[in-house]
């Protein structure tokens, strides 16, 4: 039976303090931290400990981008520093992903980290069976667990399956197959111009694959500022990618030569391979939500500021709909850890709950598209008195001297009434890094006057921010 294991592994447990169902980045963090704090914790995972990010998401895709961007930088030698002949070879990328990033999609190291911390890892599919109870289906049968403190759901997502005529059953790629490729196709059609579609499009294009990107919305990276979408579209197009936005897809055909996508206007796009990157499906349908009075078909799980989704039930990660990012999953995990470990009777005012005003995100194309907080459209929809200003990075001192690859922009969204930033975009070769300063400004509600009076080292990429801040201050002075 159960015991307070501390740093030791618990062998057989039916009643524990906390059960974590799904060990994505946040779930892994919660399970490990609570076990290290002395609680009896079971982590339930049906695939790989760590979830999408280390094996099929952030890490392998960023390794691919690192290689692709190196090729692009090498191609810039001719303009900047002489001559370089570039012969792309995907083999080192596939090798790094397999050997360095994923241990050939084996999670033994992550599992050991967890069990060393005192978590009991149960391999199987977890399902709620009423408040505080989880039934796990394992290879050996079923295991019933009672969680006296509660259950944390971190089930994440799977790639969306599009109901396109002819698609099901064909050997198309999702992100999971795309990060495992060893040999590249000659041509690729990508369905979906979100972060996954854009990042992988640039990877494959830079390795010489002829890529056509199909986006149903009117522009790629739809939730980002229109200026970012336009600039990224220009960059990708200049690199040889064909982008078709505002397209409907009628059907997909597959034969021995590859895929043919028929568009709503009758046009056809043929390619050797097809990648579907058109959003995600929450893995909450079969997790027993109905047994605790929640809707398994919901678009996301509603949570309060303590990440509570119900009685003795927390939810974290992509399933909460607060931003499908690893850092959000980890951030929410920290909130759960605080809530579980909060001293008895601690009242709401002392508790630092989840706050999403300044969620930062970066699409790691080149240029990187970093943004934080609200877009201009969101700020206007929120009824704020909005001021915006932007500058072209290539016309800043550093962007200009950077030369090829120095394109980007800074766009700031301010609340004129409070004189603070509520959103910002930083696009450029180091757009994600420059974003750090802006994320702090939005998070801490740093007054524009303060941002306008600080030093911005010359000639940095982040110095471009000072121009935009000055513009906003000018608008405020002019009575905007
Ligand atoms: C290609 C790609 C690139 C990305 N790049 C970035 C990036 O650069 N930066 C970033 O911040 N984010 C990125 N993301 C998003 C990031 O991967 C996710 O936001 C992150 O993994 C957090 O997800 P999660 O915590 O909700 O759970 P997930 O990582 O989805 O993990 C959930 C886990 O739960 C398990 N599970 C589900 N149901 C059950 C069940 N019933 N029983 C047992 N186990 C179950 C699953 O097997 C899985 O291991 C990327 C995603 C993709 C696909
Ligand atoms: N760098 C990062 O942080 C990063 C990178 C990749 C993914 N992610 C996360 O993973 C999540 C999933 O990424 P994603 O790009 O799959 O999803 P997404 O929902 O962000 O984008 C999907 C895109 O596909 C389009 N689409 C949907 N159906 C379509 C159809 N039938 N035909 C053509 N286009 C269609 C949508 O309009 C949208 O532009 C994102 O929300 C993001 O948070 C983050």
UniProtKB/TrEMBL annotation:
Start and end residues of each Pyridine nucleotide-disulphide oxidoreductase dimerisation domain: 359-467
Cofactor: FAD
Keyword field: FAD, Flavoprotein
InterPro entries given in the database record: FAD/NAD-bd_sf, FAD/NAD-binding_dom, FAD/NAD-linked_Rdtase_dimer_sf, Pyr_nuc-diS_OxRdtase, Pyr_nucl-diS_OxRdtase_dimer
Residues of the FAD/NAD(P)-binding domain: 17-333
Keyword Flavoprotein: yes
Family: Belongs to the class-I pyridine nucleotide-disulfide oxidoreductase family.
Name of this protein: NAD(P)/FAD-dependent oxidoreductase
């Amino acid at each position: 039976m159960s015991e307070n294991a501390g740093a030791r592994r618990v062998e057989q447990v039916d009643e524990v303090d906390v059960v974590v169902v799904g060990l994505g980045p946040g779930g892994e963090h919660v399970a490990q931290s609570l076990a290290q704090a002395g609680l009896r914790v079971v982590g339930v995972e049906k695939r790989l400990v760590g979830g999408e990010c280390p094996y099929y998401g952030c890490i392998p895709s960023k390794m691919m981008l690192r290689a692709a961007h190196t090729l692009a930088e090498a191609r810039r030698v001719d303009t900047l520093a002489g001559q370089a002949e570039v012969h792309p070879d995907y083999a080192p990328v596939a090798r790094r992903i397999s050997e360095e990033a994923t241990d050939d999609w084996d999670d033994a190291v992550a599992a050991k980290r967890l069990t060393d911390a005192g978590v009991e890892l149960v391999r199987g599919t977890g399902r709620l069976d009423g408040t505080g109870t989880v039934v796990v289906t394992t290879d050996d049968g079923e295991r019933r667990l009672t969680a006296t403190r509660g259950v944390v759901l971190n089930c994440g997502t799977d790639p969306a399956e599009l109901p396109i005529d002819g698609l099901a059953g064909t050997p198309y790629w999702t992100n999971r197959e795309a990060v495992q490729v060893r040999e590249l196709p000659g041509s690729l059609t990508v369905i979906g111009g979100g972060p996954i579609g854009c990042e992988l499009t640039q990877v494959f294009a830079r390795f010489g694959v002829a890529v056509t990107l199909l986006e149903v919305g009117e522009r790629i990276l739809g939730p980002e500022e229109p200026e970012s979408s336009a600039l990224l579209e220009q960059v990708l197009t200049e690199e040889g990618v064909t982008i078709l936005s505002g397209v409907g897809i009628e059907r997909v055909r597959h034969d021995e030569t590859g895929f043919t996508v028929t568009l709503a206007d009758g046009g056809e796009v043929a390619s050797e391979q097809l990648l579907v990157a058109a959003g995600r499906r929450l893995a909450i349908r079969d997790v027993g939500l109905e047994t605790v009075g929640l809707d398994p078909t919901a678009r996301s799980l509603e949570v309060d500021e303590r990440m509570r989704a119900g009685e003795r039930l927390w939810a974290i990660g992509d399933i909460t709909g607060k931003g499908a990012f690893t850092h959000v999953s980890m951030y929410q995990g920290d909130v759960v850890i605080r809530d579980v470990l909060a001293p008895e009777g601690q009242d709401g005012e002392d508790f630092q709950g989840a706050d999403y005003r300044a969620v930062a995100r970066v699409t790691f194309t080149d240029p990187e598209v970093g943004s934080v907080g609200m877009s201009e459209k969101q700020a206007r929809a929120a009824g704020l008195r909005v001021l915006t200003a932007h500058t072209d990075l290539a016309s800043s001192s550093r962007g200009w001297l950077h030369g090829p690859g120095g394109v980007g922009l800074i766009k700031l969204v301010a609340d004129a009434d409070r004189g603070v930033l509520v959103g910002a975009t930083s696009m450029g070769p180091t757009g994600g890094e420059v974003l750090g300063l802006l994320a702090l400004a939005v998070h801490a509600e740093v007054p524009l006057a303060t941002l306008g009076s600080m030093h911005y080292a010359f000639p940095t990429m982040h110095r471009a921010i000072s121009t935009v801040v000055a513009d906003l201050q000018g608008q405020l002075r002019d009575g905007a």
